[in-house]
Design goal:
Helix content: 40-55%
Number of helices: 6
Largest sheet: 6 strands, mixed
Strand order of the largest sheet: 1-6-5-4-2-3
Number of domains: 2
Strand content: 25-35%
Radius of gyration: 26 Å
CATH architecture of the largest domain: 3-Layer(aba) Sandwich
Number of strands: 6
Length: 199
């Protein structure tokens, strides 16, 4: 092989290596860059997160295990409390309603409406002698005719940058067995939002 051919091969190899590394860096950049939706937690976030979490909950094995033991009878669920521990004091009733709608729409379980009976639970929880929250909630749910009670928690953290604020919401959904008081399912979803700050 003469020197001219050797030079050509070296040049082609360098060019191909450069192109490959350039493509790789573009791919990595695309994967690590996260597009954040503008604005605070809103109705669309509430609906989408409720649908995702409820779909996961209803497709988990706790339901099939219950139906296997109880001769294919669908479990009865009730919505307990939605606790808002986020930095914003928005109305968490919207998220509660979205969870209820998603459970009913799934048509995989039976559902007890609890809106007009929730005050009894709140009164029980407000009792000074009450020490066991799980015991109180599951007893209340059982009195309403439910086998399982769903609870939700909304948390948030924020990070301030030069001209914007990044808020990360973490939404947790959990399911308690009213008879055993055991947590049979738990999952979470996160939503990151970007707020443009005024100059």
């Amino acid at each position: 092989m003469n020197k001219a051919n050797l030079c050509v091969i070296v040049i082609i190899t360098i060019a191909l290596t450069s192109c490959k590394s350039s493509q790789t860096s573009k791919t990595e950049s695309k994967e690590t860059t996260q597009s954040l939706a503008l604005g605070y937690w809103n109705a669309d976030d509430s609906r989408l997160i409720a649908e995702k979490l409820v779909t996961k909950m209803l497709s988990d094995r706790w339901r099939t295990e219950y139906m296997h033991v109880h001769k294919n009878m669908r479990p009865i669920l009730i919505m307990g409390l939605t606790s808002n521990f986020s930095l914003e004091q928005f109305d968490s009733k919207l998220f509660t309603k979205d969870i209820e709608k998603s459970i009913i729409k799934g048509d995989l379980v039976r559902f007890v409406q609890s809106a007009n009976k929730k005050e009894f639970l709140l009164n029980d929880l407000a009792n000074e002698n009450n020490k066991d929250t799980i015991e109180t909630i599951t007893k209340w749910a059982a009195r309403m005719g439910a086998n399982f009670v769903v609870s939700a928690t909304i948390n948030s953290t924020q990070e301030l940058k030069r001209k914007e604020k990044i808020i990360q919401y973490k939404i947790i959904l959990e399911l308690l067995n009213c008879e055993t008081k055991q947590l049979v399912w738990l999952d979470e979803q996160k939503v990151s939002k970007r707020i443009i700050l005024n100059q």
